[in-house]
UniProtKB/TrEMBL annotation:
The active site is at 148. Its EC number is 3.5.1.88. It comes from Flavobacterium kingsejongi. It holds the Pfam family Pep_deformylase. This is Peptide deformylase. PANTHER family: PEPTIDE DEFORMYLASE. It is an enzyme of class 3 (hydrolase). Its cofactor is Fe(2+). GO terms for molecular function: metal ion binding; peptide deformylase activity. Removes the formyl group from the N-terminal Met of newly synthesized proteins. Requires at least a dipeptide for an efficient rate of reaction. N-terminal L-methionine is a prerequisite for activity but the enzyme has broad specificity at other positions. Binds 1 Fe(2+) ion. Belongs to the polypeptide deformylase family. Keywords: Hydrolase, Iron, Metal-binding, Protein biosynthesis.
Length: 195
């Protein structure tokens, strides 16, 4: 089932999310619905707050990045086959040089900005079968994980850009809050009343 994606301005996107247990109600169905929602919106990652749930759950599928000509065949293959669910994730380490990449977000349609993130991470999480794992990732996979991890910490990619760039996108953010943006996927807007 495709879920509506919560738009910029909704308070759920600013919440520090709660951990869940393996007994979380309909967890398997929620995970399946979130993947379906992400694919329907042509996303590479989706976090639970983006579908209105303040819980520590996100998923990633980097396959859409795999056809970039800028990548080596090994990197393309790695991105093509990377699909992972992260439950109760905890970032243990972010290291290496910061590098810029033009990011977007399904909750902030029509806004893209260069964001600088560390090239390598170590993260602890439970997979969808509730097996505990600690993994090291780098490159684009690490970047997508950092973006989605920020969501469960109540952080948006727009928090990581300069104040000048924030001022330049203010009108677009206002349009999202007021429901004036029309992406080609199902969204739920805060629709601010009064001005």
């Amino acid at each position: 089932m495709i879920l509506p994606i919560v738009g910029y301005g909704d308070p759920v996107l600013r919440k520090m999310c709660e951990e869940i247990t393996a007994e979380y109600t309909d967890l398997k169905a929620l995970i399946a619905n979130m993947y379906e929602t992400m694919y329907n919106a042509y996303g590479v990652g989706l976090a639970a707050p983006q579908v209105g749930l303040p819980i520590r759950l996100f998923m990633i599928d980097t396959e859409p990045f795999s056809d970039s000509d800028d990548l080596s065949p090994e990197e393309q293959e790695q991105l093509k086959s990377f699909r992972q669910t992260f439950i109760n994730a905890k970032m243990l380490k972010e290291e290496g040089e910061e590098w810029g990449f033009n990011e977007g977000c399904l909750s902030i349609p029509e806004v893209r900005e260069d964001v600088f993130r560390n090239e390598k991470i170590t993260i602890e999480f439970y997979d969808e079968d509730f097996n505990k794992r600690t993994e090291v990732y780098d490159g684009l996979i690490a970047r997508v994980i950092q973006h989605e991890y920020d969501h469960i910490e109540g952080i948006l990619f727009t928090d990581k850009i300069s104040s000048l760039k924030k001022r330049l996108i203010q009108k677009k953010l206002q349009n999202i809050m007021e429901g004036r943006t029309r992406p080609d996927y199902k969204m739920k807007f805060i629709a601010k009343k009064g001005r």
